[in-house]
Amino acid sequence: DRVEDIIPEGHIAHYDLNKLHSTSDSISDKEHVLVLTPMQTFHEKYWENLLKLSYPRELIELGFIIPRSDAGDAALKKLETAVKNVQSDKKNNRFSKITILRQESQSFDKLEEKERHSLAVQKERRAAMALARNELLFSTLGPHTSWVLWLDSDIVETPTTVIESMTKHDKPVLAANVYQRFFDNDKQQDSIRPYDFNNWAESDIGLQLASKMGDDEIIVEGYAEIATYRPLMAHFYNPSGDVGEEMALDGVGGGCTLVKAEVHRDGAMFPNFPFYHLIETEGFAKMAKRLNYEVFGLPNFLVYHIEE
Amino acid sequence: DRVEDIIPEGHIAHYDLNKLHSTSDSISDKEHVLVLTPMQTFHEKYWENLLKLSYPRELIELGFIIPRSDAGDAALKKLETAVKNVQSDKKNNRFSKITILRQESQSFDKLEEKERHSLAVQKERRAAMALARNELLFSTLGPHTSWVLWLDSDIVETPTTVIESMTKHDKPVLAANVYQRFFDNDKQQDSIRPYDFNNWAESDIGLQLASKMGDDEIIVEGYAEIATYRPLMAHFYNPSGDVGEEMALDGVGGGCTLVKAEVHRDGAMFPNFPFYHLIETEGFAKMAKRLNYEVFGLPNFLVYHIEE
Ligand SMILES: Nc1nc2c(ncn2[C@@H]2O[C@H](COP(=O)(O)OP(=O)(O)O)[C@@H](O)[C@H]2O)c(=O)[nH]1
Ligand SMILES: Nc1nc2c(ncn2[C@@H]2O[C@H](COP(=O)(O)OP(=O)(O)O)[C@@H](O)[C@H]2O)c(=O)[nH]1
Ligand SMILES: [Mn+2]
Ligand SMILES: [Mn+2]
Q1: Hey, where are the domains in chain A?
Q2: What is the ipTM of this complex?
Q3: What is the pLDDT of residue B9?
């Protein structure tokens, strides 16, 4: 066993971080995964999807951070009920630990999807999200954690093997490709479309733009106003390609992104200030790279964002 | 009670970070203090000093990180013995929790005080220390932690009220002035001298130097090779001044520095890469400022570094 409690009755815990692994063989190695979700809205489908995951629950800890707002109050109530149900079930159906945090930092009021995504509000909104992610991360990461899976509360569909499949790649940072199901009115049929444009590779034009920017300006990806010509992972999805195909990235989103705990433990967090002109999850990817870790994405490995 | 466990038997922990305070009245508010010590050497005097602190032990958690080296092996043995003694004592003499981590990241081999401080080795050494501090911080900070006291293992003398006295100032980041006792051969008497030059305020010359530096160059304070003309707190000690006098700082050391947990929780860590040309504890101070927190020192509040 890699977690050794010498004298638990004396409240002493002793961990050898060098014997704590994050490997491609995470289940047989009994690696602990911390699933972290900032949650403004509780979606039944997120929860159902989470309960369907095949990774052993005794190896999964969950952490939530909920904003101080009416939306947050409502989400908290639903989450508490859901959590009580699963945790009062048979002992081996329980998650190893669940931590629910009420956010200290100010939350950004709920906006409609369109408004929420307007470039003008992005800086403030993403900065607030960065603080929420940091509060959650710093409060829940333990000395026994091998992996952190960032999973947004509006990701309502993933493969049930999402943890095993992603850990198998053995990458420091690895982002799934976030798509969205919708009804295509033109074709009158169900369809899918790219959703998250924060998973990208750097481009010469992106670097040039950054070099001309003022110290405190930021680039947020996915806006016509800032044409970076960065290759966006969302556009690299190939339905007939290998689902395990990897793509080197420089920016990531937080929708469904797996991180080796050592990357965070070395210091990679979510800057709420411009870090190389990037903030939040995109700034985190840059920080991971500054800490000498590589960042990848899986263009053909799709997870789905709710359609609101 | 501010830490509310709804259903502990179901492994659910519920915390409202907004009700978690770090106030000037830390003891009566029952605020939890996490004392963090990177430890290459176990000094009896450090331990004796720690045991003499007057802050209630049930409100103190200790966290240690020990390098993977022969020196580390020796320190670990002594620390374990010391820890077992205190934690198997009467229940109310115990610290609330003690976590001992064995470092994952590479440690910097033990060097003599002179060599260790030569400018050439500083960058590598301080970068390694940054990783050790981050590993320790990210693994031990909990949702119930109000304050973090960074206390180096070679700080062998502090006022017994160091925690109460420093929390009383109610500052986001607050550094004590690290001095050293020595025998003055000229005067043939015991004396004291400044030890830590990492506590400083920014100067125009320091900023000018930084502006001319390459992206990856760093400034480390306290070297004749780089004359920054920064006001160093070490030189502001006034034996007849008010012990509570405060001084605004821009860089801090890690010898004896108190941090509100929310500063770390918002994301302030110890960069091992140049951050505004600063690394480790000095980079941390800059990061705290980027997160909109103020940084102070107490020039007349002395703590003592061992003389080797
Ligand atoms: N704690 C917290 N979570 C939030 C806040 N705003 C959004 N979230 C959550 O953060 C994640 C991403 O936010 P979202 O608005 O969906 O971003 P989008 O998908 O890029 O539009 C989701 O899981 C939200 O539930 C907030 O203010 N505080
Ligand atoms: N974990 C760990 N601690 C270290 C290492 N090197 C030094 N330390 C500790 O870090 C603190 C500061 O280091 P020290 O060498 O005393 O720095 P100085 O006082 O500035 O010369 C002390 O508490 C040391 O025991 C290391 O490689 N790993
Ligand atoms: Mn979303
Ligand atoms: Mn020292």
Answers
A1: 3-305
A2: 0.93
A3: 53
pLDDT for B6 equals 37
- What the block records as the tokens of A208 is 């040039």
Report the amino acid identity of residue B194: P
For chain B positions 61-100, those within 8 Å of chain A (CB to CB) are 68, 80, 83-84, 87-88, 94-100
Which contacts qualify for B1-4: CB closer than 8 Å, 24 or more apart?
B1/B30, B2/B30, B2/B144, B3/B143, B3/B144
Query: For residue B106, how many other CB atoms are within 10 A of its CB?
Result: 14
CATH class of A3-305: alpha beta
Residues of chain A with pLDDT under 50: 1-7
Candidate from A16-30, B1-15, B37-51 with smallest mean pLDDT:
B1-15
Euclidean distance between CA atoms A63 and A101, whole angstroms:
8
Q: What is the DSSP letter of A264?
A: H
SS in 3 state form for chain B?
Answer: CCEECCCHHHCEEEEECCCCCCCCCCCCCCCEEEEEEECCCCCHHHHHHHHCCCCCHHHEEEEEEECCCHHHHHHHHHHHHHHHHHHCCCHHHCCCEEEEEECCCCCCCCCCHHHHCCHHHHHHHHHHHHHHHHHHHHHHCCCCEEEEEEECCCEEECCCCHHHHHHCCCCCEEEEEEEEEEEECCCCEEEEEECCCCCECCCHHHHHHHHCCCCCCCCCCCCCCCCCCCCEHHHHCCCCCCCCCCEECCECCCCEEEEEHHHHHCCCCCCCCCECCECHHHHHHHHHHHCCCCEEEEEEEEEEECCC
Contact B267/A265, CB-based, under 8 Å?
no
- Per residue in A74-105, pLDDT tens? 999 999 999 999 998 777 789 999 999 999 87
Structure-block tokens of residue B172: 């986001």
| pLDDT tens digits, one per residue of B223-247 | 877 788 899 999 999 999 999 999 9
Ligand 4 mean position, distance from CA B170 (Å): 26
Q: Indicate whether residue A40 lines ligand 1 (CB < 6 A).
A: yes
Mutation test of the interface with chain A: which of B90, B136, B139, choosing the one with the most A Cβ atoms within 10 A? B139
Return the structure tokens found at A54. Answer: 């095949």
Which residues in chain A have their CB less than 8 angstroms from residue B84's CB? 6-7, 10, 12
Cβ(B28)–Cβ(B142) under 8 Å?
no
**Amino acid code (one letter) for A10:** G
